Structure formats: C-alpha cells, structure tokens
Amino acid sequence: MDTSDILECDLLVIGAGMAGLSAAARAAEGGAKVVVIDKAKDIGGSAIISGGFVWTVPSTRKMRYVGNGDPALGAVVVDGYSDAIVWLRSRDVQMSGPHNVMYGRGYQIDIIGHLRSCVASVEHAGGVVVPETVTERLVTDEHGRVIGADTTHRDGAVRVLANNTIIATGGFQGSADLRAEYIHPHARSIPLRSNPCSTGDGLQLGTAVGGHLSDGHNPGFYGHLLCYPASLDHPSKFAVLTQYHSEFSVLLNKQGQRFCDESLGDHLNAQETLTRTDALALLVWDQRIEEEYVMKAFVEGIPPVDKLAVALAQGAKGALCPTLDDVARHADEWGFDGAAGRATLERYSAVVRSAPETLHPCIEGALLPNDKPPYRALVVQPAITFTHAGLAADDRARALDSRGQPIPGLLVAGADVGNTFRRGYAGGLAAALTFGLRAAQTATGDR
Ligand SMILES: Cc1cc2nc3c(=O)[nH]c(=O)nc-3n(C[C@H](O)[C@H](O)[C@H](O)COP(=O)(O)OP(=O)(O)OC[C@H]3O[C@@H](n4cnc5c(N)ncnc54)[C@H](O)[C@@H]3O)c2cc1C
To answer: How far is CA 166 from the centre of its chain?
Structure first.
C-alpha cells in the first residue's frame, strides 16, 4: 500500500456518529487538531436517523437494574450525563424541556444541528471530517502504542498519524455473521433497524492490535419488535412499524404459550422473541390497551400511530378480530397454534382478575386484563438497532487487552464499548455522548 500521504493530528476518530463527533468536537474545543473519518457516504450514523432523545436513568442503582451491564461502565453514563447536558447547552444545541422516556428522563435535542455543529468545531480548530474513507488497519509503534491508521479514500491512501485514536464505529448489528456468532443463530436474518454501516469494523480493528471482546457472553442488543413482514426501505419506517406497546400486551409463541414477562419492555420482548421458534411471536392486545396505550404517546411529544392499520397497509400479517375465536382462526393461518393461544388468552385475563400471583411468566409491571373486544392480533419479529457486546474498555474509555491493561493510544466510545448494557438498555445516545466526552477527556488529558 502506498502510504506516501501522511496526515498528522492530535486525535483520530473512526466513526462520525454520536460518540465520534461528540468526542471530536470536545477535543477540538480545547484546540486539538482532529481527523474524523467515516466509511459511509454521509456523516451521522444511527444518530442522525434517531429520535434525538438524549436520556438515561437517574441513578447508578437503577442503571444496574435496567442497564444490567458492567457497573463501572454504566456509571460513566449516569455520572457523566449532567455534564454532558451542560456541554450541549454550552454549544447552544436546541433542546426540549425535560421528558420522561421509558423508565428514565432526558431531552429531545436537535440531533442534526448537534452533529453539524460538531463538524464545524473540528474544522474551526484545523481538523477535517472525511466521509467515504475505509480504515485498513490501525498502526502501532514498536512498543505497541496505537499511533494512527492506514486509510483509503477515493483520492488515495493516507496514513493518519495521531497521538490518540478513538474507535466509534457504532457496533456490529450490520453484520449477519457477527449477529449469528455473538447473539443467536436466529439473529442472522433479523431486520436491521439502524444505519447499515456498523458492521463490526471497530471490533475487528481493535482486536487486531490486542483489544478483546468484553468479558462474558453478552448476547444482548437494543432493538424492538416490528410487524412481520416489515418493509424497512426507509429509516422513517423504523419507529412507525415498532410495536412499543408489546409491554402492555400478550405475546404468544408458535405453540400458543406466553414465554416472557411482557411488562419488562418491548426492547426485552424483542430479545426474548429472537430465541423462540422461527423468531416470531403473535402480539395480541384488546380495545382497552389500544385506547390507553397504543393511542397515547409512547414517548412524550411523539404523536401516537394506529399501529395495526400501518402494519396492515404495508402487508404485515395481522387482523382486527371481533372475538377470540377470530384471533385463533387467524393464528392458525399464520402458523401458530390458535386453540392453545385462545386458551392462553382466556386464562391470562381470568388469572389477572382473580389470582395474579399465579401468573407464569409473572408480570412485574401493571396488570392489565386483555379481554375487551375487538382484539388486535399481529405477527411480530425482533429487529436490531445496536449490539451490547463489544470491545473491552475501562471507565476512562481506554481499550483494554486480554489482561485488562489499557492499549496505549487507543480509546473506544459509543456502541463499540462492550458491556455498557447487557440485556437491558438505558439510552443509546446518552451512552454514546458520555463515552465520547470521556474518551476526549482521556485523549486530551483534560480531566
Ligand atoms: C431509528 C432510531 C431511533 C433512535 N432513537 C434514539 C433515541 O431517541 N434516543 C437514544 O438514546 N437512542 C436512539 N437510537 C440509538 C442511537 O442512535 C445510537 O445508540 C447511537 O447513535 C450510537 O452512537 P454511536 O456513535 O455508537 O454509533 P452511530 O451514531 O451509529 O455512529 C457510528 C458511525 O460509525 C461509522 N462507521 C462504521 N464503520 C466504520 C469504519 N470502518 N470506519 C469509519 N466509520 C465507520 C458509521 O457509518 C456511523 O456513521 C435510535 C436509533 C435508531 C436507528
């Protein structure tokens, strides 16, 4: 490879999404010359197509319970959150008032404005943000310190030399092989509810210089249940086809049985559904749930959508059913055991009304009978937004080797950090932002 073109900088950032651009801007504010590269045609990754809710849970105690990852990494998100919001405000990022989001709280920000202003900060300090650039390999010196990367752009090959390098490529959800290997064999064929470019390059680049996959088997991912089939030809469909209200509904497997505590959240229901026969489930909700939950905003400020109507309009398997007999008949047509499902639904509502302590699986959340016709029945499938396994890192965002030692010159941020969450989830943008800022602090010595 011709590496005659050499670009020198203080900080190289690989990945121009939420974590990478936030890190880059923070370092540039302190005068660092930063080079940001992205393999996609445009900057922004999943962040630019996100809802822009920068939220998390308010305490490390709650993070342990709902995020369920490495406590030290969860603490980076919780403890770093308020400084991160102060930082966004200092940059005049447009922001809503406080919102309740899932089981936490936060703000909806002008995410596109934020990402663009990060690019401006990098350029103002003499750096560059370069899309459509492939990272061939990280470059190390004779002591094993990462000193940059060999990159290829359509104008040629460039060796970028940097005091520090941040990997922020957004996870490996875009790779069917890695999904099958690290999450579940069924994950090979699930739909992608994310930018398409996060294919595990950060994991591959990091492990090639001594980094390793975070400890413990972590098959977790953040995703949601979508109708089946779902045509995801445009990111605008990601949210409207998502069945957030599964946490108030009943999910049946192909055998017509409940298989999880639906009330724990649609993101967990997606992980549970992945491991069932054909990675499909039948979601059933009644008129009460439709009125009280589906036709109310899942997140404050987002207008509700008639989920069944939207799903049916794009060819999904589902029906509005006047009776449970109709639910059973359609369930049979779609390959579910309709009679068993009908019995499960009848028993479920009776037990909720009479002896909820005998429910199995139990329900930790609100107990809602599901017996007010008409019923909505919809076949659902899990879709993935980002992965929870990733590169081992410490709470200073330093990439760690297999002995737990920092790899000099190499930092990790965003969804590339392994084990921030395990099965749970407490804000992808907040995790990316706080780890991005932490990585910038570590890189620039600004603590
Ligand atoms: C539809 C949708 C809605 C969402 N809404 C919310 C929300 O409201 N709140 C919330 O908290 N989270 C939300 N999320 C999740 C959130 O967007 C992500 O958690 C967050 O963007 C992750 O940040 P990141 O920097 O790790 O990855 P990203 O923002 O995805 O950025 C990764 C970047 O790395 C680039 N890249 C990949 N490989 C390479 C390579 N080899 N070299 C260079 N660049 C590379 C990608 O092209 C991409 O630009 C949503 C996601 C989606 C898809």
So the answer is: 19
Of the candidates 447, 372, 443, the one whose C-alpha atom is nearest the C-alpha of residue 167 is: 443
Integer-rounded Cα Rg, in Å, for the chain is 23
Average pLDDT of the chain to the nearest whole number: 96
Rounded Cα gap, residues 158 and 4, in angstroms: 7
Q: How far apart are CA 233 and CA 425, in angstroms?
A: 26
Q: Which domains does the chain have, with CATH numbers?
A: 5-216+388-444 (3.50.50.60), 223-384 (3.90.700.10)
User: 46 C-alpha vs ligand 1 centroid, how far in Å?
Assistant: 3
Res. 447 pLDDT band, cuts 50 70 90: very low
Q: Is 426 in the pocket of ligand 1 (CB under 6 A)?
A: no
Ligand 1 lined by 253 (C-beta under 6 Å): no
State the closest ligand 1 atom to the C-alpha of 21, by its place in the atom list counted from 1: 25
Distance of CA 11 to the CA centre of its chain: 26
Query: Is 216 a residue whose pLDDT tops 90?
Result: no
Residue 43 CA from chain centroid, whole number = 18
Render pLDDT for 101-128 as a digit per residue (tens, 0 to 9): 989 999 999 999 999 999 999 999 999 9
Closest ligand 1 atom to residue 37 Cα is 43
CA distance 378 to 347: 20
Q: Which of 14, 41, 43, 46, when mutated, tests ligand 1's pocket best, judged by the most ligand atoms within 8 Å of its CB?
A: 46
Phi, then psi, of 104 in degrees rounded to 5: -135, -155
DSSP assigned state of 192: B
Ligand 1, atom 27, residue with closest C-alpha: 170
- Has residue 274 got a pLDDT over 70? yes
Residue 347 alpha carbon to ligand 1 centre in Å: 42
420 within ligand 1 shell (Cβ under 6 A): no
Does 432 sit in the ligand 1 pocket, CB within 6 Å?
A: yes
Question: What percentage of the chain reaches a pLDDT higher than 70?
Answer: 98
Residue 434 has pLDDT above 60, yes or no: yes
CA distance 11 to 359: 55
How many Å lie between the centroid of ligand 1 and the Cα of residue 173? 10
pTM tops 0.85, yes or no:
yes
Amino acid symbol at 348: Y
Q: Whose CA is nearest to atom 4 of ligand 1?
A: 50
